[in-house]
């Protein structure tokens, strides 16, 4: 071999060695990076485990989120949380950095008006409508949240919406008309009506109410006796997606630039969430061009108090979803428990009939006033008991322990909560199974527990504690539900008018409904009932 040829061969061999070494270096670098990530993950998980080691919980929850993911994806998370606090105590661990409590006192402390705790973006941001854009429910900054609430308070309270009660009355009348004209069997005929899905009809009501009081124009589901534009199906589908992504721990993908927008609903969509968003956006734009003194609904009030642009749009859209789903769950629960407890049903109907005979309520087709319906002691007890024994909203509502941690008292025992820890609440345990507050028969539907007389020893204090705990169904303190007054009025009036005008009976008592927990809200269907005119 010539010297020049030998040099070329040697050079080629050297280059090959260099390339091989370079490839090896890259592989080693990749392995080192992967190892560093794994080591960091393990270290972080061990740190979380150690920080909360004193809190009991199901096996494996100290090192893995698997237990919690399974609970969320099962659609039965509220019962899982309840079982944990029943077994492990009023404060327990359900994930490496997540605690849950059933203590009303601790939850009141965490949610106090001036609480230093903040909302956990891990939970709240997964239910944003658009990536990076908040509404009053998803806003995790305390100052920003408080400012939003102030702008919305007058609209929800009814102070700037004098037609609020009239709008609710109109839609309740529409529901009564629908049942009487299409579904109810005549009172004296001894015939039986065809079963109807009461869950669907009540959803039509609540969606028409919130769109009427919010936009000044109902969607028209009751008149059409249908899910106009598939809005209800879209809401359930959208919430199901949120629940799945939250349970799998991948909701953060929506915050990734470009990707988040691509996988989120668009106002250009021809159906679903996107179409609902487009409708809400159009309503907002049209109203912004009009003087607010010409209208007196919530939207006008929001505008007068400074909400505008995207902020206004997101509050209006949130109003539609939250105002409909939470209220209809309450109505479904109350009606189901009335139909499955004949003694309570008969007693409540007797109170309603007496009020009508006494002229406290106007003759049909008039609707009882909010002032009058608040005076019905047994109806009030039935509503509170229904919401207690089956809370209509079972969100975990996770908060973040402030930097530096917090020392709290739970059932007479002191606990230190490390800063950055997530802590949520178990609605099922706090309300349905809370024997310390509601008595040994707390899991029983018994409205009479709310009729404690002043002459009962300790009765006044016991009732006050029960009411304070029960009210937490609507949130507490800084995060108290702004729409509570609207929901409260709608629930009481609707139950009164349904039992005044009709008799209801479950068509399939052995299978009363289909129910699924999605992000703490209940998707309920197949609530088949037979309706008879009274």
From TrEMBL:
UniProt pathway: Hormone biosynthesis
UniProt keyword NADP present: no
Cofactor: heme
Annotated transmembrane regions: none
Cross-referenced Gene3D superfamilies: Cytochrome P450 (1.10.630.10)
Keywords tagged on the record: Heme, Iron, Metal-binding, Virulence
The keyword Membrane appears for this protein: no
Alphabetical list of CDD domains matching this protein: CYP57A1-like
Binding site residues for heme: 481
One protein family per Pfam: p450
Molecular function GO labels: heme binding; iron ion binding; monooxygenase activity; oxidoreductase activity, acting on paired donors, with incorporation or reduction of molecular oxygen
Protein name: Cytochrome P450 monooxygenase ABA1
Organism of this sequence: Endocarpon pusillum (strain Z07020 / HMAS-L-300199) (Lichen-forming fungus)
């Amino acid at each position: 071999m010539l010297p020049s040829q030998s040099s070329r061969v040697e050079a080629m061999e050297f280059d090959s060695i260099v390339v091989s070494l370079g490839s090896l270096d890259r592989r080693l670098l990749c392995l080192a990076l992967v190892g560093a990530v794994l080591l960091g993950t393990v270290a972080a998980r061990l740190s979380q485990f150690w920080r909360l080691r004193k809190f009991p919980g199901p096996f494996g929850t100290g090192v893995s989120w698997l237990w919690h993911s399974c609970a969320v994806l099962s659609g039965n998370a509220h019962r899982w949380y309840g079982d944990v606090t029943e077994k492990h105590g009023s404060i327990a661990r359900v994930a490496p950095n997540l605690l849950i409590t059933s203590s009303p006192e601790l939850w009141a402390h965490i949610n106090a008006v001036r609480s230093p705790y903040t909302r956990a973006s891990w939970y709240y941001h997964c239910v944003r409508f658009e990536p990076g854009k908040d509404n009053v429910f998803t806003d995790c900054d305390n100052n920003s949240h408080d400012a939003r609430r102030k702008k919305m308070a007058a609209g929800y309270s009814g102070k700037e919406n004098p037609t609020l009660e009239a709008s609710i009355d109109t839609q309740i009348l529409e529901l009564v008309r629908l049942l009487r004209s299409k579904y109810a069997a005549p009172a004296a005929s001894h015939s039986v009506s065809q079963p109807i899905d009461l869950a669907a009809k009540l959803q039509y009501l609540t969606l028409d109410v919130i769109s009427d009081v919010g936009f000044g124009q109902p969607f028209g589901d009751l008149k059409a006796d249908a899910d106009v534009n598939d809005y209800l199906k879209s809401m359930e589908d959208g919430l199901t997606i949120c629940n799945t992504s939250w349970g799998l721990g991948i909701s953060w993908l929506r915050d990734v630039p470009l990707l988040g927008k691509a996988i989120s609903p668009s106002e250009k969509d021809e159906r679903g969430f996107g179409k609902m968003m487009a409708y809400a956006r159009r309503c907002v734009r049209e109203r912004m061009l009009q003087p607010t003194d010409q209208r007196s609904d919530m939207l006008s009030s929001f505008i007068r108090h400074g909400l505008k642009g995207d902020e206004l749009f997101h509050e209006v859209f949130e109003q539609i979803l939250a105002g409909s789903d939470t209220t209809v769950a309450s109505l479904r629960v109350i009606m189901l428990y009335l139909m499955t407890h004949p003694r309570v049903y008969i007693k409540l109907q007797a109170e309603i009939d007496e009020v009508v005979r006494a002229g406290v309520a106007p003759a049909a087709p008039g609707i009882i006033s909010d002032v009058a319906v608040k005076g019905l002691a047994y109806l009030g007890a039935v509503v509170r008991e229904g919401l207690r024994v089956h809370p209509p909203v079972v969100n975990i509502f996770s908060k973040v322990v402030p930097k530096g941690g917090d020392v709290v008292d739970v059932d007479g025992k002191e606990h230190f909560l490390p800063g950055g820890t997530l802590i949520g609440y178990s609605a099922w345990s706090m309300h349905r199974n809370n024997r310390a507050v509601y008595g040994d028969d707390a899991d029983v539907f018994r409205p009479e527990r709310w009729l404690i007389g002043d002459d009962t020893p300790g009765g006044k204090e016991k009732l006050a504690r029960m009411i304070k705990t029960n009210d937490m169904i609507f949130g507490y303190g800084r995060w108290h539900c702004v729409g509570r007054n609207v929901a409260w009025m709608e629930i009481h009036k609707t139950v009164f008018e349904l039992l005044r005008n009709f008799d209801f009976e479950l068509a399939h008592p052995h299978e009363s409904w289909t129910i699924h927990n999605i992000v703490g809200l209940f998707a309920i269907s197949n609530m088949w009932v037979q309706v008879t005119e009274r």
